[in-house]
Amino acid sequence: MRLELRGIWRLVNYRYLWGAATISSFGSQITSIAIPLLAAVTLNASALQMGILAAAQNAAVPVFGLFAGVLADRRRRMPLLVFADLARALLLISIPLSWWTGHLSVTLLVIVSFLSGAFGVIFDVTRQSIIPSMVEREQLVDANGKVYLSETAADLTGPGLAGVMVQLFGAPASILADAISYLASALLLMRMKLEERIATSTPWSVRIVGREIAEGYRAFVSIPILRTMSFSVAAGNLFENARNAVLILFMTRELDFSASWVGIIYAIGGAGFFVGALLPGQAANRLGLGRAITFGLILLWIGDVLFPFAGGPKLAAAAILATAMFIFGVGGSIFDINQFSLRQAVTPDQVRGRANATIRVLVRGIAPIGALIGGIIAEAYGIRAALIFAAFSSPASLLILARSPIPKLKTMPTTP
User: Fold this and answer.
1) What is the biggest distance separating any 2 CA atoms in the chain, rounded to whole angstroms?
2) Closest by Cα among 339, 347, 336 to 148
3) Of 397, 394, 415, which is closest to residue 407 (Cα–Cα)?
4) Residue 14 to residue 347: CA distance in whole angstroms
5) CATH assignment of 216-408?
6) How does pLDDT run across 253-301, given as a tens digit for each residue?
7) Which of 127, 230, 256, 359 has the fewest CB atoms within 10 Å, measured from its CB?
8) pTM metric for this prediction
9) What is the CB-side half-sphere exposure of residue 324 using CA atoms within 13 A?
């Protein structure tokens, strides 16, 4: 019996891209657990060293983000995706090799985390930029939704899988498995047959690269829908990170939850993201694209509002937090997939990589500021006060959209 592929699955290039993204997502979840465990348990890293290690990968976004956008617009994107995967595989292989030869150090883990994060930024920006060139405009929500769904599945099951692998085989072998996953991803990408045009053949120089980064920024600020949508996402990230900075402290200190309770609540949140990732297309079809984006934001806000109300008996507090996490996850998926597809649709292909990189630096770069705000408020007025601040500030995302044409959009714009 022959399996009949339907819809977007009939696109061979998309199937390879989706498969590569899925494989590398599960592999990355393994490394996100295995590297810190290797530092803490095997190398007895100090708290400061663990902090530096955690910061190393996040630092890649503001450092390399804009340059990654230039690369995505200057080079053919499929080979660039393969290069990023192979580079990450080689970097990760250095960890088990160093462990087996007795030369492993925290410094090496920091360097590998930072550089693999840099190539991860290149991969993500390039992947975001290549999807609109392989699917029709009306297929963007479906295409992004399927990738998002597989990433969410990795987020939901990956940490548990990583814990089992580290327990059974050790952290070095688990990291080697992630390196193999990147090699498998690269092999899938190599099978893509995609005709691409190189947007520019001008030579490399600091001045020219700076000019091209500026072009990406100008594209970002000159397209009203792109600019407004990005500022809305950034505002949401600012206050979400104010909440995230203190949420675990709230659960463990204020509510006296054990680590297992915390894990269960976060798993329920992951299930919310998974369920929500099944719905963005249906929401856009039933409500219209703009209203689906707005509906996702409203669910995010409802989830935010519930967090500060958790209290009383432990079971009741856990139920409130789990409900908040689940609603937040469903809303987050509906909002993210639809708004991201909209941003792709309105960005011209020749600057898509640089515009995506500009937005990524804005959206990710504001996260530490939100975390600092949450920490300062919690220190001065208490943890619950920080959660209340985040909950009643998060409608800023809705207010930014309210005066724009985005909520009135029925379908995807037909031209950039």
Assistant:
1) 66
2) 336
3) 397
4) 20
5) 1.20.1250.20
6) 788 887 667 767 877 877 887 788 778 778 888 888 889 999 999 999 9
7) 256
8) 0.68
9) 21
